[in-house]
Amino acid sequence: MAPELNRFLSPLDAAFLYVERPGETMHIGGCLVYEGEFSREHMVKQVGARMHLLPRYRQRVIFPPFLVSHPLWVDDPNFDIENHIDEVWLPADSNEQVLGRVAAEAYSGMLDRKRPLWKGIVLRGIPGHTAVVWKIHHAMVDGVSGVDLTMVLSDVSPTDKLPAPPAEAWAPQPLPEPLSLLQEATQHRLGELNRTWTEAAFDALRPDVIADRTRKMMSASSATLPVGATPAPRTVFNRPVGGDRGFAWAQFSFPTMRAVKSALGGTVNDVVLTVLAGGLGRYLRARGQDTLGLELRAMCPVSMREADERGQLGNLVSNMIAPLYVGVDDPVERLGKERDGMNRLKEAGQAKAFYEMSQFGVRVPPLMAAMGAVMPFQQTLFNTVSTNVPGPMIPLYFGPHKLVDWLPLGIVSNNIGLFVAILTYNQRITLGTTVDSRLIPDPWFLSRCLEESWAELREAAGIEDDEAIGARCFAAAGEVETDADASKPATAPEAVAAAEPATVKTARAAADRSGPLQGAA
């Protein structure tokens, strides 16, 4: 059954439209790699057969006159799935680095606001495999509802059978004419304010509710006061960003990570943050930054969805500002500090308090919110964003094609040149790093640093790894290159930075011989 859809965007959903710039796009997504080879036409057929289960994906955004309310969703009378699926060919003999570069190029650029805010790009040319890069605007989905989309498009076993068609063919509702749109938007806005004022008035008559809310706010404020009072330390990736993207990833065994968690204590999330902090520390030292005593901050989105809210679209998220102890060399000590820091934030109820505070956004006039979003603002509260989205632990299939690698992509914006999207799927956990390629020109060196950070923590726990590192698609195709120095620790990124442009140059030369690296549509 298709999810129930809201007509108007929430203040948080709309904010992703207001703050978007050509060089700071606000879509999320991933690069999904499947066994077997298939074409754009196959994807059009598979996705088209499921569009009745994805009604939002046939709707586009319109802005009401004078922005009396936040934007609203309307059926796109000109919807054509052919406009939303492109195809790109990778050059022959591609490897992970080339896949990352081409995926980053496909992922770059704003989505067309005159159409539904999503696109899928089929990447062909991986031996025995096909990849699909998804771009979906954050105004439509958060990380959890993005996973739900993949579930709708997938089966739990290989099949050539398409879903049963709907009883009635889709007929788009006509676009509202301007006066009717203004009337509907005004009614919606007045209804929002009426509910807000009524709830506030009656809450004032319930002292226990006010006292409980005040206590939670004070607790969260005391835990986050140091964050708000002082800016985060600057790093090489905390500078103004542009439109060029890079993409790399590091993948680990989820059962092994759980074993490390059990041996050393804490949660899987604590272990992931420890690996991330250790990897960033290695990377920054290689780039010449002193990390002694350095503590970075990661903004970690927290899903506020209840079990019965899975499948709904839009954003139901809060945030936590997590410490990253990049200056602590000992991996066990670093894990202890990460665990203690996260426990303090959880005990303070930071995520819930931030969520309740975000609900005050409904009181801000939409026009004022949109104008505020375009004002110059340099974000200094945190250094990076780190999401952790749980995916299914069983293999999924796109028709007859098994999903072997699910590589998440994120958002680079406002002085945050590094986004770490973390996703679990089929007993693997993947850290996908989306970067501004001017600030981090060597994302694969960063991946190497993350791998070494994981190895030292795993060895400290006395746990052996149960699988090789690297994307399954290239391992299966025999494309994973061996390196005699692979066991040596990562040093300066110059070698990797020099090798990567050479790989790109070779890829582009091969592409020039076989066709441009661009969409067919």
What would you say this structure looks like, in words?
This protein has 521 residues and is of the alpha+beta class. Helix content is 38%, strand content 19%. It has helices spanning 11-18, 40-48, 96-107, 143-153, 178-203, 207-229, 254-264, 268-286, 331-347, 350-358, 366-373, 443-460, 472-476, 494-514; strands at residues 27-35, 59-62, 72-75, 85-89, 118-124, 129-137, 245-253, 296-303, 317-324, 384-390, 397-398, 401-409, 418-425, 428-436. The strands form 3 sheets. Strands 4-5-6-1-12-11 form a 6-stranded mixed β-sheet, with helices on both faces. Helix 6 packs across helix 10 and helix 7 crosses helix 8 (268-286). The protein is globular, with a radius of gyration of 23 Å. The protein starts with 10 loop residues before the first helix and ends in a 7-residue tail after the last helix. Mean pLDDT is 85; it is low at 477-521.
Determine the N-to-C terminus distance.
Answer: 31 Å
Shape from CA axes?
Answer: globular
Number of discrete helical segments: 14
Portion in beta strands: 15-25%
Record field, number of beta strands:
14
Query: Roughly how many Å is the radius of gyration?
Result: 23 Å
- What's the main sheet like? 6 strands, mixed
Strand order of the largest sheet: 4-5-6-1-12-11
**From N to C, what is the helix and strand string?**
HEHEEEHEEHHHEHHEEHHHEEEEEHHH
Unreliably modeled segments = 477-521
Features:
521 residues, alpha+beta, 14 helices, disordered C terminus
How is the secondary structure organized here?
Layout: H1 11-18, E1 27-35, H2 40-48, E2 59-62, E3 72-75, E4 85-89, H3 96-107, E5 118-124, E6 129-137, H4 143-153, H5 178-203, H6 207-229, E7 245-253, H7 254-264, H8 268-286, E8 296-303, E9 317-324, H9 331-347, H10 350-358, H11 366-373, E10 384-390, E11 397-398, E12 401-409, E13 418-425, E14 428-436, H12 443-460, H13 472-476, H14 494-514
Parallel strand pairs: 4-5, 8-10, 10-13
Antiparallel strand pairs: 1-6, 1-12, 2-3, 5-6, 7-14, 8-9, 11-12, 13-14
Helix pairs in contact: 6-10, 7-8, 8-9, 8-12
